[in-house]
Design the sequence.
């Protein structure tokens, strides 16, 4: 994997308390990496440092091989940033604003017009080119924020909670757009919502209280948080005592006449035992699935545990 972002032993302290502690991260050229963490975990601090908005207390960040502190101009050529609050000038039209940001990026003057047209197309805002930003909806403002992050075709695009506060329709559009962006750029995206990260990201880095607690693929993350309950549908539902008699089952919760949530000792694989018991007793097993609905709760617990 060729590396676009490398973070080594990154730590940051605001006055006396540490917001980020010894982070080590590597990100490749394309795809979406999720930065997951509860409020105050250190996501924005990390992103602000990566993008050169904040100087770290300790450690090193390189983007496309350039140290963000030592060679900020070179590094920033390859960084597009959408901060948590997009830096929009609301009295500008979309066109004025995008020309302005392109100039700020010191882009070649002859290339600006085409670049503005291209990002408007990518973010679906072309039909509002001469509308004042203050007259746009929240969803469209967010698109303008993303457009300014892409204007100079950076290799790395950093999006701080880009889907926060969007309504369900805007969410679908925003996710689609982010997936498209990730085909050409490396995207680092933060969220405190596990289901959002699961929907969008191939890989996930979880930080809590400034420390990295997990970094791997989304599939590995689901195993890491593997639920210790199953949803089981049985045509002939037995008495609770019969289910509790299966080795490893420690609690059952009847959901409907045909569906039950079965809790088991963490780390055990008990699917086969349930299938076997069903066959022996003619319970007529219709469905058995991992209880993903509980994952968000597990995540909350995990966040609380690691913050202490
Ligand atoms: N300018 C600041 N001065 C002092 N402390 C700060 C400052 N900014 C953030 N912090 C603290 O640093 C820690 C990490 O904050 P940060 O904003 O990076 O977290 P986050 O994961 O982005 O959370 P959120 O999603 O709520 O923004 C928190 O404890 C926060 O209170």
Sequence:
């Amino acid at each position: 994997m060729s590396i676009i972002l490398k973070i080594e032993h990154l730590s940051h302290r605001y006055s006396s308390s540490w917001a980020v502690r010894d982070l080590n991260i590597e990100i490749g050229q394309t795809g979406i990496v999720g930065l997951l963490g509860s409020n105050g975990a250190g996501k924005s601090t990390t992103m602000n440092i990566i993008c050169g908005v904040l100087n770290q207390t300790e450690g090193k960040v390189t983007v496309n091989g350039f140290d963000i502190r030592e060679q900020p101009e070179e590094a920033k050529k390859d960084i597009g940033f959408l901060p948590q609050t997009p830096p929009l000038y609301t009295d500008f039209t979309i066109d004025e604003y995008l020309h302005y940001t392109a100039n700020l990026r010191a882009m070649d003057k002859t290339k600006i017009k085409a670049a503005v047209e291209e990002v408007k197309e990518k973010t679906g805002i072309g039909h509002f080119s001469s509308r004042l930003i203050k007259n746009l909806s929240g969803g469209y403002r967010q698109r303008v924020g993303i457009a300014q992050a892409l204007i100079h075709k950076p290799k790395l695009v950093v999006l701080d909670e880009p889907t926060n506060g969007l309504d369900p329709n805007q969410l679908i559009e925003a996710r689609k757009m982010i997936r498209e962006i990730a085909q050409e750029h490396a995207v680092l995206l933060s969220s405190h919502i596990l289901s959002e990260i699961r929907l969008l990201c191939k890989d996930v880095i979880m930080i809590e209280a400034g420390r990295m607690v997990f970094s791997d693929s989304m599939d590995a993350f689901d195993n890491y948080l593997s639920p210790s309950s199953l949803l089981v549908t049985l045509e002939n539902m037995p008495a609770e005592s019969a289910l509790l008699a299966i080795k490893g089952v420690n609690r059952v919760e009847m959901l409907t006449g045909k569906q039950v949530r079965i809790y088991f000792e963490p780390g055990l694989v008990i699917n086969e035992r349930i299938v076997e018991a069903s066959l022996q007793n003619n319970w007529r097993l219709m469905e058995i699935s991992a209880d993903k609905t509980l994952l968000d709760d597990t995540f909350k617990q995990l966040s609380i545990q690691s913050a202490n």
